[in-house]
User: Which sequence fits this backbone?
């Protein structure tokens, strides 16, 4: 007999020659179901995380190159929007703000803050920066755990694994998204630069609103995925990878324990059904355990009526 430390239950050692005294076939079978389920989920996790390590190994170079290639577009866009040019070129900001009074500019800036706050609220968090959530997945066994309680925890950790994997994927995609993003911003700034040259009282509000949006997109938090430098990006990517593995490890363990409990519950129900069907056989089996030993005839009273005594009448002459 040994203790299963993950469930706190005792199981028979199938190699123990004394195991036939109350042979625990159910314990062995259910332990097998547990390990079988864990193997299945381990394979599922391997497929879900396939290629992640290789992508991580290549990510630093890819992200660094994308960031470096985008710097020229960012610098040009910022200079054209609101920078000072030694050649005397007027920025879009300077060109437009003279057509608006202070109250109009203030109202437009407040409106931008309202809109961006609404976006943050509806998205649940900042749309840039590290997307990894909580990375704590406790899965120690408890005495009162049930199939139902394990199912809830498994669903929670599976969702966490899915989130972390999606986060990892979005970070890898930044290498291709950053050049596209900054190129689009530069094209929009170039278009606004031309339109602002013929700005009037009629269209200046829309043009200045466009300027504010482009300036917001060029702010530090909106560029390069929201990461201040390459190391910050790599730290987040590493955490996303580690948390993906951690969530799956917890799921593997919990799925195994759930399979064990399901097997034990089914075995208990099946045994109960068997007892109902075979009540007579069980009754006789129990009787065999407690029946009295056979009684010798010499111990019987000759008048007990059992029919096992032979009475021989002695002849009268012998008396």
Assistant:
């Amino acid at each position: 007999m040994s203790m299963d430390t993950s469930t706190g239950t005792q199981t028979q050692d199938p190699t123990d020659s004394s195991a036939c005294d109350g042979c625990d076939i159910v314990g062995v079978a259910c332990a097998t179901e547990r390990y079988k389920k864990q193997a299945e989920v381990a394979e599922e996790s391997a497929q879900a995380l396939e290629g992640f390590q290789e992508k991580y190994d290549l990510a630093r170079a890819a992200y660094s190159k994308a960031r470096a290639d985008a710097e020229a577009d960012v610098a040009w866009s910022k200079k054209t929007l609101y920078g000072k040019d030694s050649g005397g070129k007027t920025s879009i900001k300077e060109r437009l703000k003279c057509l608006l009074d202070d109250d109009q500019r203030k109202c437009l800036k407040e409106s931008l803050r309202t809109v961006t706050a609404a976006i943050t609220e509806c998205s649940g968090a900042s749309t840039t920066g590290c997307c990894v959530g909580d990375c704590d997945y406790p899965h120690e066994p408890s005495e009162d755990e049930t199939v139902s309680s394990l199912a809830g925890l498994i669903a929670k950790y599976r969702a966490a694994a899915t989130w972390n994997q999606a986060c990892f994927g979005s970070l890898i995609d930044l290498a291709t998204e950053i050049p596209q993003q900054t190129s689009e911003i530069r094209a929009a700034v170039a278009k606004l630069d031309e339109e602002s040259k013929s700005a009037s009282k009629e269209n200046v509000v829309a043009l200045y609103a466009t300027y504010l949006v482009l300036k917001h997109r060029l702010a530090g938090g909106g560029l390069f995925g929201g990461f201040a430098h390459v190391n910050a990006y790599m730290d987040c990517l590493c955490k996303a990878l580690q948390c993906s593995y951690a969530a799956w490890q917890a799921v593997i363990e919990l799925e195994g324990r759930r399979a064990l409990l399901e097997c034990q519950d089914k075995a208990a129900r099946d045994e109960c059904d068997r007892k109902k069907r075979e009540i007579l056989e069980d009754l006789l089996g129990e009787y065999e355990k407690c029946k009295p030993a056979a009684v010798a005839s010499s111990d019987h009273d000759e008048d007990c009526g059992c029919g096992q005594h032979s009475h021989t009448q002695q002849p009268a002459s012998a008396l």
Notes: The longest strand covers residues 2-4.
